[in-house]
Specification:
The chain has 209 residues and is of the alpha/beta class. The chain is built from seven helices and seven strands, in the order βαβααβββαβααβα.
């Protein structure tokens, strides 16, 4: 199994990069694991307290479970990925079954921040993007998908998103094998990644033939 980690700041275009790669392959070839699914459940807190949580801090993510799941997938075993809601800031009772594939893409702002997880990743990618572009995307996403207003988004950006990006996310760029500037708009970088995956799949198919 080839494991690819795609990190980068909130709103940098990671999901677009992942989607553009995945659409070049069949469902049987690539599995995707999002670390958004592994935020700790906060159902013991009030809704206001949950919304005040810093979701850009490494301690907000249950990395031990994520590491365990990646190890299981590498062994060829299916896992039960949690389902997390950013509206309620809680985990659902249901889970989603993820089957092992030839390629596993791990996507998330902090997926290169945890050493144990990082050591399981074969290709480390950091998606880079200007801060003003990321902010505009965060405003649009949080209003449309997460039930926040402009004032709430800007306060959260100043209080937690920007400081956490500087302290925890941006420093992980040094671990990257590939840095993708301009996010999902950088078709050249996406094509390079896609071609590398295709070549690896050919080798895996030849090896198992």
């Amino acid at each position: 199994m080839l494991v690819i980690g795609i990190a980068g700041g909130t709103g940098s275009g990671k999901t677009t990069v992942v989607n553009k790669i995945v659409e070049q392959f069949t469902q049987n070839e690539v599995a995707v694991l999002s670390h958004d699914s592994y935020y700790y459940d906060n159902s013991h807190l009030t809704l206001e307290e949950r919304r005040e949580k810093n979701f850009d801090h490494p301690e907000s993510i249950e990395f031990p479970l994520m590491v365990e799941h990646v190890k299981e997938l590498r062994k060829g075993n299916a896992i039960k990925e949690p389902i997390y809601s950013f509206i309620t800031c809680t985990r659902a009772n249901e889970t989603e079954t993820v089957q092992p594939k030839h390629v596993l893409i791990i996507e998330g702002i902090l997926c290169l921040a945890n050493k144990e997880l990082r050591d399981l990743i074969d290709i480390k990618v950091y998606v880079d993007c200007d801060s003003d572009v990321r902010l505009s995307r965060v405003i649009q996403r949080d209003i449309l998908e997460r039930g926040r207003n402009v004032q709430q988004v800007l306060k959260r950006y100043e209080d937690t998103v920007r400081p956490s990006h500087i302290n925890f996310i941006e420093p992980t760029k040094r671990f990257a094998d590939i840095i993708v500037p301009q996010g999902g708009m950088n078709q050249v970088a996406i094509d390079i990644l896609t071609n590398y995956i295709q070549q690896t799949l050919k080798q895996l198919t030849k090896y198992h033939a």
